[in-house]
Amino acid sequence: MSESPTPPTHRRKRSLSRRGAIGAAAAVAGAAAVTPAVFAATGSGDSTGSAAAGSSGTKPEKFPATRTEAATGTGEANTAFAASYVGLRWSGAKEGAVIRLADGDWQTLASGCAAVEDGGTALVAAQSATAYEVKAPSDINGVRSLAIDTTSGPARTFKVPSEPTRVRGVGYLSRPAWGADESKRYKDGKVNSPETYYPLQIITVHHTATPNDDPDPAATVRAIYEYHAITNDWGDIGYHFLIDEAGTVYEGRYSGDDGIPAFNTDGDLVTGFHSVGYNSGALGIALIGTLQEKGPTDAAKASLIRLIKVISRFKGLDPQAQVTYVNPVNGVQKDTHTVGGHRDYFATECPGQVMYDLLTEVRAAAAR
Fold first, then answer.
1. End-to-end Cα, the chain, rounded Å
2. What does the mean pLDDT of the chain come to?
3. Are residues 44 and 192 in the same domain?
4. Could you tell me which residues are beta bridge partners of residue 62?
5. Dist CA 366 CA 318 (whole Å)
6. What residues contact 67, with CB distance under 8 A and at least 6 apart?
7. Domain membership flag for residue 23
8. 3 state SS of 231
9. Is residue 30 in a domain?
10. Cβ pair 291, 351 in contact under 8 A
11. Which tens digits make up the pLDDT trace of 84-118?
12. 3-state secondary structure of 65
């Protein structure tokens, strides 16, 4: 039996929500009680924090609205704007489709991190192309593509927290602070992917398989959001957190109106879409870039270690432990690391060979 959620059939419609007050507390196993309100805290540098995220009010900030143009089938497609990325989804064989941007070279499409059970999916950096062409062999069908512009669209105003948002001293950009358009979580006025929550068991590390040396990582996060939520029909960005090369942490999957990233007020983890069959009770952290032949920057690795340490202490996990993960949805079990890589659960290069080889160091540092 598969854990992956049933794709919804309703169409999306704008419906916005805003973050509110922090609610009830949750205890941490094997440690002093740490409430979600303390886990998600603001402050200029205090490692413990005291105020709930968003409690100091908001300020208006403008971000480019994401523009998209969809196409179905293979062949040529033109866009009315310069595309940042092209997201693709297809059924049938997992490999074999190719894409060419404008008059460039053909590129083989690979699913990278965003793996699916039937067929494949890919996010391709479009380098401001206004045209692309897709070809696929006969064992691939149902090709859908979406040209995505996250840099040059008309400005939209978001209510961004006035004070830095932090998780136990680790600063992060909340969803409004990177320009997450909450309407993309809805179809026909309903949440595309209703939130479900389970106790945290494991942490899974990913890379986004997007270009390194990213000049605008927030725009890339918006593109991944569009790709995951719309192209892949997941209703939201799949990861719980993302980390760019400067070490900036981004809040990923929406987890409620309580101001707590990734968790609800009971301390349970919202289910993401980052590891097919092993999503429930598994927290996904993605490093922005491609880490197959190149390692993460020192800043990115440091943020990854600090975030894993914070979450592990919050939930009483040992980052160096071997555990038996039990899927709370279907009972599937797997012996694994508390902190593992995507390839531990699916046939993928993710999180890249170099990053995967660093996980032993990451586990040890997070346990100190």
1. 38
2. 87
3. yes
4. 157
5. 9
6. 81, 148, 149, 152, 153
7. no
8. helix
9. no
10. yes
11. 999 999 999 999 999 999 989 999 998 789 888 88
12. coil
